[in-house]
Specification:
alpha+beta; Butyryl-CoA Dehydrogenase, subunit A, domain 2; Butyryl-CoA Dehydrogenase, subunit A, domain 3; two-stranded antiparallel ribbon; 11 helices
Length: 377
């Protein structure tokens, strides 16, 4: 196991306690209701989970990225859907504001965001573009001291829940990466419309939305960075985002493996606990090995981030390995429980549905392989 500082262990234990006492008992009900209780979000804000790496002077906790990853692992073990809201809020939402926002924007938006006053959304993906952010079609044009934005976005986490959204649109007349610009808007602004909440395989409590911008007016004071700087801003946050998704994968796999081990210790077959049968025991041993390998890859990427080293490749490797290992681990947990693993009486079937998306969002596994290969070339 990696050596952690006292501060990192404290964050880990706080997150673990909250996840086990508050999140895990209500995870199934949350999925059924397709919503996260406001009281849960408020508690998370009070505990600092929505401002993990934001400096204290900006309203955050000022934790390092290792602490953030450790906390996210534990939150994901409690409820994968809640961890997705936490992940997107911290990075890319907070991360972009922390790096690129003006002092006035930070005071108005980042400070309350870091304290959990509202949830943030990141509106980049479009139906025809997918992983190719340079192909987006949402348009922005100047109108006096404002910008008027028209377009559509898909698969936006917290698109309905969020109080503020970071969005990207192309300046009128531009093509390719040139002209893509980053904006910030309250979601109650006229012209910001949630047109669909996706009915998903898993993570039902985290809303994933299709958005429409219909003559959405954004003041120039809420443009982030310069015109045409949006593509660079969008990509800058994905490194941290991928560390977050990898951490989520580890957390969900951890919860499933713990459930499988507990079941295998209690359930007897042919006069012995299941865990004493080599076929079951070896399956669990392999799952534990994959889990700890994934955990170390996540923490390694987070440590590189903390020390200011470029970690695009390491973050991509962590996300690729952790997300794919997690699906295998949770599948093995279901197999260990047998018919009960396929039943909603046990949490592993929900975790299996929740964890599958980790190979898709923040860049699919294929995109991660492209990034890794690019780092090798």
């Amino acid at each position: 196991m990696s050596v952690l500082t006292d501060e990192q262990r404290l964050v880990q234990e706080m997150a673990r306690t909250f996840a086990r006492e508050v999140l895990a008992p209500g995870a199934a009900a949350r999925a059924k209701a397709k919503a996260i209780e406001p009281a849960v979000l408020a508690q998370m804000g009070e505990l600092g989970f929505f401002g993990m790496t934001v400096p204290e002077e900006m309203g955050g906790v000022g934790a390092d990225y290792v602490s953030y990853a450790l906390a996210l692992i534990e939150i994901a073990a409690g409820d994968g859907a809640v961890s997705t809201v936490m992940s997107v809020h911290n990075a890319p939402f907070n991360a972009i504001l922390q790096r690129f926002a003006t002092p006035a924007q930070r005071e108005r938006v980042l400070r309350p965001a870091a304290q959990g006053a509202f949830i943030g959304a990141f509106a980049l993906t479009e139906a025809h573009a997918g992983s190719d952010a340079s192909a987006l079609r949402s348009r922005a044009r100047r109108a006096g001291g404002d910008y008027v934005i028209d377009g559509e976005k898909v698969f936006i986490t917290s698109g309905r829940l969020a109080g503020w959204a970071i969005l990207f649109a192309r300046m009128e007349g531009s093509t390719g990466k040139v002209g893509i610009t980053c904006f910030l808007t309250p979601t109650d602004t006229p012209g910001y419309e949630v047109v669909k909440v996706e009915d998903k395989l898993g993570q039902e409590a985290s809303d994933t939305c299709a958005l429409r911008f219909d003559s959405l007016r954004v003041p120039e004071a809420l443009r982030i960075g310069a015109e045409g700087e949006g593509y660079r801003i969008a990509l800058s946050s994905l490194e941290t985002g991928r560390i977050g998704i990898a951490a989520q994968s580890v957390g969900m796999a951890q919860a499933a493996l713990e459930a499988a081990v507990a079941y295998a210790r209690e359930r007897t077959s042919f006069g012995r606990p299941l865990i004493e049968h080599q076929a079951v025991g070896f399956r669990l041993a392999e799952a534990k090995t994959r889990l700890e390998a994934a955990r170390q890859m996540v923490l390694h990427a987070a440590r590189m981030k903390d020390t200011g080293q470029p970690c695009l490749t390491e973050a991509a490797m962590a996300k690729l390995f952790a997300s794919e290992a997690a699906e295998r681990i949770v599948s093995d947990a279901i197999q260990t429980l047998g018919g009960y693993g396929y039943s909603r009486d046990f949490p592993v079937e929900r975790i299996y549905r929740d964890v599958r998306v980790c190979q898709i969002y923040e860049g699919t596994s294929d995109i991660q392989k492209m990034l890794i290969l690019r780092g090798m070339a």
